[in-house]
Amino acid sequence: MDFLVLSPPVCPPSEPPSGAFILASALCGHGYDTGFLDLSLEFYHRILTQHSTTPGVLRSVDYLSGTPQYDPMTHRSAAGTLHRAFKGYSKSHPGWTLTAMDLTPPAPVHQPSGLLRLLLTDDPFLPLWNATLPSVLSRYRPRRILISVAYLSQLTAAISLARFLERHGIEYIAGGSLLRSLHATGKGFNLLERTFHNIDVSNGANLLPGIEAGHFLDKLAYPQILSQQSYLSGRPILPLTLSIGCYWSGCLFCPDKDMKYIQMKTTGLEQFMASIPQHVLQQRPVIHFLDSAMPKNRLRAVMPIAKHFGLHFYGFARPEKRFADHSFLRELARSGCVMLQLGVEGGNDALLSRFNKGIHPDDAKNVLTGAAEAGIRTYVYLLFGLPGETVSEREDTRRLISETIDAVDFLNLSIFNLPRHCDLIHRAKEFNIILNKYDALADAIELYRPFKTTNSSESPRRAAREFITNRFTSDDRIRQAVLRTPKWFRAAHLALMNISGRN
Ligand code: SF4
Q1: Which of 246, 253, 259, 357 to mutate to test the pocket of ligand 1 (most atoms within 8 A of CB)?
Q2: pLDDT tens-digit profile of 379-406?
Q3: Most buried of 205, 367, 423, 434 (most Cβ within 10 A)?
Q4: Cis status of the peptide bond prior to 10, with omega within 30 of 0
């Protein structure tokens, strides 16, 4: 085997971790013999096996992994049962807290040296490495081992995995979007360099010499899956991306604004589709596009391919004017789009303009209603707590959602964090932002800066939280949309949710 891509715990067990899966697909697409091992999936199945006699656990696993279309309330109850089982992890591992998407250790997660110290005395991952890795390594003898770290929730296990490989004299390369983001826009990359002996943040370029940076995703093929375990999903969800960066690249708070926008060739998607094994195709997979935002012309290019392969798909779109084209949205639905993740962000034009979102609330409303009428599920992303956001601007957001509630299937309510690297940092004075220092640990990694604003004594984050709790969700129909949006297994399962009027 040329490459073995390892994804450490924990990532949600509902779909393959995107960065690792896409990397493995790209290596395969370029003709390399590549295996993909989702150690997080293995980790969760071990926990579930330990709880198999707990009432309701097996039934919930069967429901979540065997139902092609979920009923929102039954899904809620099944996910809740599993969540309670995951909570039991603390009993056998005091101080550790496990959910369906996170594992919090009894040490600050932003401090790699502290995590390393903790693992020297308390490493809950060792039994997993011992049970899974030696057999895979001796059977496939990979020439290169890649550890993909996309989320903070993986960092502790990634450090443990790196130590395990080092102790056995096995070389590895650590990479992934968390390490890349810290390198490009965060603080503390040097701390990671002390923890992982070999890091590569080239986004694939160093692995495939001769291929222009970013274009390694032009060729994709279904990788060799080395886990025998199934994902907790009624249909396989396959993450892919057709671009790096964002075609808009305008939002003042975007940490990735400097990233060059590169579109992949759609022939890579065709190549990937043609390579999916028959037994996966029989389960009617759904493609989860991870692009920051898919422009309309990009979706137009995907539509005939999706139709040809009978493919269902979903992904992010900016609800801008050119999307407010109902005949296009109907065509999009007919070609297999089952959900749009729409960054509506807010309902006040002046607020959106101040931060250069490039979206008008009237257009967002129009896109929402058009998508819902076409039968496409809508997953609406709202952002509260932008610096200087006023009560009446928040109210406009509430009003927008209230007026379009029949078209709002799921809601993602975020509270603004200020990235350490974005235009707002350089224009802090203009936006009345006072940049604070972390009073936390000096040797901690950081992607965000604490801040307050000069024109309010109140923290924007606290004000936003109070508004969401006391005002936004006081509208019964909005509360229903929030309740319909599961806390666990989010984007993967939402596309499979049975919503009246949607395809
Ligand atoms: S739409 Fe998202 S990715 Fe694009 S510039 Fe705005 S914040 Fe960044």
Answers
A1: 246
A2: 999 999 999 999 999 999 999 999 999 9
A3: 367
A4: yes
Q: Which ligand 1 atom sits nearest the alpha carbon of residue 249?
A: 5
List, in order, residues 6 or more apart from 456 with CB less than 8 Å away. 388, 463
**Residue 276 has which token pair?**
């999916």
- pLDDT (tens digit per residue) in 14-27: 999 999 999 999 99
Distance from C-alpha of 467 to C-alpha of 453, rounded to nearest angstrom = 18
* Strand blocks (E) in 256-336: 262-263, 286-289, 312-317
Q: Which two tokens stand for residue 92?
A: 């056998």
Please name each of the domains of the chain with its CATH number. 3-51+88-195 (3.40.50), 236-416+475-494 (3.20.20.70)
- pLDDT given for residue 290 in this prediction: 95
**Ramachandran category for residue 194: left, alpha or beta (phi over 0 → left; psi -120 to 50 → alpha):** alpha
Say how far apart CA 308 and CA 10 lie, in whole Å.
35
Do residues 88 and 77 touch, judged by C-beta distance below 8 A?
no
CA distance 291 to 243: 6
